[in-house]
Write a structure and sequence with these properties.
The chain is α/β, with parallel strands linked by helices and about 240 residues long. It is built from 7 helices and 7 strands. Helices cover about 40% and strands about 15% of the residues.
């Protein structure tokens, strides 16, 4: 396929940056959105809020009105305090409402292209709770409901919507509670990389997954299948 256009939110760093780089290398025209400065080698980066309708409309215009892929990676990491209403409102706005607004704003262009959407969720919320941030857990659990709903809405028009749910990924987003290369809570024994998550995203927006929609792809090195009891007995691989 040629002349494919993608919008990637949170494209200046972490999983969003790795996804933008991967798609550009694969021949996509990538338009990134991020609140911080920077650039995308081989793509366009718009400075602004990923949940701002005017910024999203500008991104669609940069794609000439055709969006073959939308990747929502912008987000706020879990922090706290858990009982702060201001924290709750901020996290829900960025981690859940902004992806909804991106879907809403890009939907006609996605329908026109019979495009694909990937929302970046988390194992937190869907498989784990959060001691620090119930807001983050609620938002990421909501991402899965949002994706399943839009997968149904988009199916008649050939628009696919899926979720990637990362675990511990070695980016500035993830607080280092254990050494990245010695994670006793992960069967593979280490944190993942942004590039490993991006590889799954690239697969999901490509033609090989044309019959996949409404699905959640977990990228966590096996963390969610490891019981607490087993974690004390399983040593990470050398």
């Amino acid at each position: 396929m040629t002349n494919r256009s993608a919008i990637v939110t949170g494209a200046a760093a972490g999983i969003g940056r790795a996804t933008a780089d991967l798609l550009v290398a694969d021949g996509w025209h990538v338009v990134g959105i991020d609140r911080s400065g920077g650039s995308i080698s081989g793509g366009d980066l718009l400075i602004g809020d990923a949940g701002d309708a005017s910024v999203l409309a500008d991104a669609v215009e940069h794609c000439d009105g055709r969006v073959d892929a939308l990747v929502c990676s912008a987000g706020i990491p879990p922090s706290g305090p858990w009982d702060s209403r201001d924290h709750w409102d901020k996290v829900l706005a960025v981690d859940l409402t902004a992806p909804y607004e991106a879907l809403r704003a890009c939907w006609p262009a996605l329908v026109g292209a019979r495009g694909s959407v990937v929302l970046v969720g988390s194992i937190v919320g869907a498989a784990e709770g959060s001691l620090r941030s119930p807001a983050y857990a609620a938002a990421k659990a909501g991402i899965e409901g949002l994706a399943r709903s839009f997968a149904i809405i988009g199916a008649p028009d050939g628009v696919r919507v899926n979720v990637v749910a990362p675990g511990a990924i070695a980016t500035d987003f993830d607080e280092r509670l254990l050494p990245a290369d010695h994670r006793t809570d992960v069967p593979l024994g280490r944190m993942g990389t942004a590039a490993e998550v991006a590889a799954v995203i690239g697969f999901l927006v490509g033609p090989a997954t044309s019959y996949v929609t409404g699905a959640v792809w977990t990228v966590d090195g096996g963390r969610t299948i490891l019981s607490g009891a087993d974690a004390t007995r399983v040593a990470p691989p050398d």
